[in-house]
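note to self: dont lose this again. the chain is below, predicted strucutre after it. 181 aa total, dont forget to put it in the shared folder this time
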Amino acid sequence: MSAIEGVVVRPGTPVATFVDTGGAHPVSDYAATINWGDGTTSDSAVIRVNGGNDQVVSAVPHHYLAPGTDTVLVTIQDLNPTNPAATVADARLTEIAIDPLPVQPKSTPLAQVAVGSFFDNNSFAIPADFTATIDLGDGSPLSLGAISQPNGQGTAFVVTGNHTYTLERTQPYAVTVVIHD
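---
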């Protein structure tokens, strides 16, 4: 495309052509913008069919204020792609066995005691990616667990919690930890 400084580039001026390798679609399936390369804001463009190819044309007038060579960038978006968006499944979480809670007399506070551990097959996962709820098995309300990764990224996560059991029992409490990824 060529232009003259101070002379309007009229609407309808062709600036690019393209072919959708996914097959022909109606022009309404596309949107385009033109960055004129001269520091002004990008303008919307119109897509039209021209000789079997899709053509991008200016939708509004544009003025170049100074002579020179400006790189025009046309961005085309397929609003109705034939290929669906990528579907990414969540990596598998694997439970890791831990030692039972320590036996303590009733009313002894348990502070930051490990109640669960798991491994995420996503080696980039970090503790902030998860939350944990803990059912301590004694009828008390669910509590939030703290999640850490003591040995660093790509290693097992540990869930800790705080609680004070108020009843003596001969049987251990069944503690349930649910991880929300």
